[in-house]
Amino acid sequence: MARTVFCQKLNKEAPGLDFQLYPGEVGERIFNNISKEAWQQWQHKQTMLINEKHLNMMDPDHRQLLEEQMVGFLFENKEVEIEGYRPPEK
Questions:
Q1: Are 13 and 4 in contact, with CB atoms under 8 Å apart?
Q2: What is the pLDDT of residues 3-23, one digit of tens each?
Q3: pLDDT tens-place string over residues 18-62
Q4: Which NCBIfam families does the UniProt entry name for this protein (predicted)?
Q5: Domains of the chain with bracketed CATH
């Protein structure tokens, strides 16, 4: 049976992640409070961010930047700012 969480990003009950995908305390918060759907949204943003800013995941400063963006996006309702990217008009 799939586990559900109250997703802090989407503000609704939704299927949760199958296992903790991110290490440490932040990873636990994500596992307990973020849905698969919201995580997929983040993965999409993360890919764009890494490509846009040419981030190197071996660089601790780059990982820190990415984590700050991730926490902002998932928990603080902040939009990830990606230069040159315009969200589609609704």
A1: yes
A2: 999 999 999 999 999 999 999
A3: 999 999 999 999 999 999 999 999 999 999 999 999 999 999 999
A4: PRK05408.1
A5: 4-75 (1.10.3880.10)
